[in-house]
Amino acid sequence: MKIIGIDPGYERCGFAILEKKNSELFLKSFGIIRTDSKTPFVERQTEIARDFSQLLKKHKPQVLSIEDLFFAQNVTTGLKVAQIRGILIYLAHEFGCRILEPKPVEIKSAFCGNGKANKVEMQKMTQIIFNLESSPKMDDAADAIAAGFFATQNLSITD
């Protein structure tokens, strides 16, 4: 089973590709889709959609695990992130992915054993679980890895 984990955003959208074979878990790829803040929002949406579609075609995941929206204090930012989430969910659904939308606290609990884990703890746990030489530099990538990990813990191989 291949899973794409997403930490949605419009300046930095974290992604991770995980593969679960029997009881083994592999981190195949991770990174960030980055857009320029000077670019109009509609063009940023298009850029993220195009890059995400390429990830779907390249890795062929069966599951999308995308962090549910936690409405921050800035409503404008929250609405823009919600639009990005909608685009990504639509594309993954059209691709045939099963969609999971765990809450941030559920992801943190599954990944760190603590629903209030901070960014540094999430990055460090990524390094420990996947035996990486160092933690991912961008917390968005670590959060995407954790979102993908959540799916591996909450789906059976046959789901």
Number of DSSP strand runs: 5
Mean pLDDT: 93
Strand content: 15-25%
Q: What's the overall geometry?
A: globular
CA gyration radius, whole angstroms: 15 Å
Describe the protein in words.
The protein has 159 residues and is α/β, with parallel strands linked by helices. The chain has a single domain (2-154), classed as Nucleotidyltransferase, domain 5 (2-Layer Sandwich), CATH 3.30.420. It is 48% helix and 21% strand. The protein has a 5-stranded mixed sheet. α2 (75-95) links the parallel β4 (63-66) and β5 (98-100). The longest helix has 21 residues, at 75-95. It is globular. The chain starts with a strand and ends in a 5-residue tail after the last helix. The mean pLDDT is 93.
In short:
The protein is of the alpha/beta class. It contains five helices and five strands; from the N terminus they run E-E-E-H-E-H-E-H-H-H. The chain has helices at residues 41-59, 75-95, 104-112, 119-129, 139-154; strands at 2-7, 12-21, 24-34, 63-66, 98-100.
Write the layout of secondary structure elements.
Layout: E1 2-7, E2 12-21, E3 24-34, H1 41-59, E4 63-66, H2 75-95, E5 98-100, H3 104-112, H4 119-129, H5 139-154
Parallel strand pairs: 1-4, 4-5
Antiparallel strand pairs: 1-2, 2-3
Helix pairs in contact: 1-2, 3-5, 4-5
Key terms:
five-stranded mixed sheet, alpha/beta, 5 helices, single chain, Nucleotidyltransferase, domain 5, about 50% helix, about 20% strand, globular, about 160 residues
